[in-house]
TrEMBL record:
SUPFAM superfamilies: DNA breaking-rejoining enzymes. The keyword 4Fe-4S does not apply. Residues 305-314 have a biased composition (Polar residues). Residues 231-450 form the Tyr recombinase domain. Residues 315-328 have a biased composition (Basic and acidic residues). This is Site-specific integrase. The lineage of its organism: Bacteria, Bacillati, Actinomycetota, Actinomycetes, Streptosporangiales. Residues 305-328 are annotated as: Disordered. GO terms for biological process: DNA integration; DNA recombination. GO terms for molecular function: DNA binding. It comes from the Bacteria. The keyword Iron-sulfur does not apply. InterPro entries: DNA_brk_join_enz (IPR011010), Integrase-like_cat_sf (IPR013762), Integrase_catalytic (IPR002104), Tyrosine_recombinase_XerCD (IPR050090). Keywords: DNA recombination.
Amino acid sequence: METMDIAIWTIRQRKGRAKPYELRWKVGTEPKSKSFLTRALADVFRADLLKAAKKGEPFDTVTGLPVSRTKTEKAALSWYDFCRKYVRMRWKAAAAKTRESIVDSLTVATFAMRGDAASGLSKKDIRGAMQWALIPHQEDETPPPRLDYAVRLLQKGTLKVRDLADPIVARKVCEELTLTRDGKRAAADTTARRRRGLNTALEYAIDLGELTENPLKRIKQKKTARDNTVDRRCVVNPTQARELLVSLSYVGSWHRGRGRRLVAFFATLYFAGLRPAEAIGLRETDCHLPETGWGMLTLEVTRPSSGKQWTDNGTVHDERGLKQREEREVRPVPIPPELVRILRAHLEEFGTAPDGRLFRNERGGVLGASTYSRAWEEARYFALSPQQVNSPLAGKPYDLRHAALSTWLNGGVDATLVAERAGNSVEVLLKRYARCLDGRQEESNRKIEAALYT
């Protein structure tokens, strides 16, 4: 129903509210109100209503808006609905880790996109509700009782996507991206990842017509230097690496072979420079293991670990192609005779899983990160001195890959070849392992001295 009977009152401030500035007006007999983060925004909205009333434009009694704005207002997406729409668009083509990252970015942004209805929800409640609501396969399910109240409040209690055009709103969102769950400053990599995820989502909002420009581009934040270089203290030398592999044999009982079945797994990380997810996906058909000489691993599949809710098959591990490569593209990795012997011995003693995988847990399932990490921690106590155990030396299984690449580079292997075998770009390789190249400074000094005095 439309009417020309309009009364518009002044703006009032309500302290303690998420959006403290409220404009009230009446359309016919229907009282209306709208809250804003700033007085300036409230003034602009009030001016628009006054302008429409002076022009004699009828107002809609349901929305309380001039007829010219009614369709626009009805079409505006709430932040909650936009997040669901965006995740469903991205879900099918995204890897499990990417899905998890997308949901994290949107969830953290939601902390700053609460309206009055959801202002009483804690961040813990919002995180649980959003993680449940954004998973597409749960679309037709009802929320679990512990999340039902929070989901219902978010459905009706988030700001509109277009509210991000307000710099104050956008800045609050950006601030949330920099915080951990306990309110401390997050690592620079975490903040950057979240901002990348949100940036892509807001580009989609522009495609939908909810925003005219990406508000993140106007928010300049202090840049924090990100140190992605490998800590040389975590890199083991060849002797230490072999001692760690031997010590794995003493982890667990000999009969069950908990540690012995992992020796070859960790050996591929050190001698071939594989990522753990690549080693987990390694199959017998991927291995060329001659009786003498060098062998070859042809990598095609990786099994990164993620939560069951992020994978299509409902398991912890997502089966994907190789990192930073086209689908079905393979990566050949030559392996030294020592690793060939270790892998041949592993196959002879433990065989393979039904699908041909070399490495599996004691029940035959996919080897989990928690399983091999526990064994590695125990092996460190056997192989290292108490002082070394308390140091970063080989603190994580991934440090074996760091040690492998550092050893190759220090041995004088061309960086292009190392990058090719490791599945990295040359730029990333040299940037990450710059601190681990021992002896290069003295060699460079000798070359400079020779040039100066010849």
